[in-house]
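Bumping with the actual sequence this time:
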Amino acid sequence: MSPEKNKGNKAIFLFGPTAVGKTRLLSDFFSGIGEVVNADSVQVYKGLDIGSAKAGKDETDRIPHHLIDILEPWETYNVADFIHLADIACHDIWQRGKIPVISGGTAYYFKHFLYGLSEAPQSDPGIRQDVALFIRDQGLQRAHDYLKIVDPVSADRINPNDSYRISRAIEVYRSCGKPLSSFALPTNPRNDMQVLSIGLTRERQELKNRIRERVDIMFAQGLVGEIRGLLENGANPSWQSMQGIGYSEFMERVYTDDRQTAIRNLDNLSQKELDEIKQKIVSDSVHYAKRQMTFFRSFSDVVWIDPDNCPQLEQLISGFLAEA
């Protein structure tokens, strides 16, 4: 697999549900010929390492990673930011004769990166502020319930904990009186990109077991300490970063009034309470993996493989790079 073939606008999408085994394949199959463009909405944040299963130094030494550790944990990040920064990263990678490997678990990043954003109205600062106040006063669940009424299609697609996408969908409806789901996505790839889409999949029970094992490892690596450090730096449930799985479960349990109270609550958690949080993270991860697969299955022209089928993966990559 010669890097000389990696010219122009070729890119590889490597995606699949949480814990399917993307990280190992990235360093095993793309080191030397490609560089990773991170398509995960949590791994962009500094200090969110364990709970996001971020690639470690061994992996990043073997293959460069872009769009990791680029934001402070209190900052916001959306799909338009991802598209803009991923475009810059891909151009940089192409300039060096390598191939971008866009990889991660945030499914809608892939679709919008390939086709662009819908023609929905641009964000209006005044309406956005009104929606933010509505969510603050009524709560995220009430906001999601409201979205079910005004835009049931979007509500079905959006995780009830995804404050950014809920806010955006409500904002669009209040801007023009039309649901976000009524605005069609473009159907032609941007920038004439040539994309090989590789979807990773495992048998359902095997994936559940891998998720459970991953969460056990996170706790053993010091997830509780990572949460404490974030709280000490001001983390609270309103931060977008704290709404990711592995973080929101702790915030829901320990954050009541303020940071100091949350730290005390965290320090006083019993083993039984920690086990309950761990189980909640496993359960939320399993449900998230199911939603990811539903979204990924809607993509066209995807080659689905088992991550352990190394010969098939190598054949796919070699064939794609050899194409004119």
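The tokens above came from a reply further down the thread. The chain has three domains: 3-118+187-205+297-322, 125-182, 206-289.
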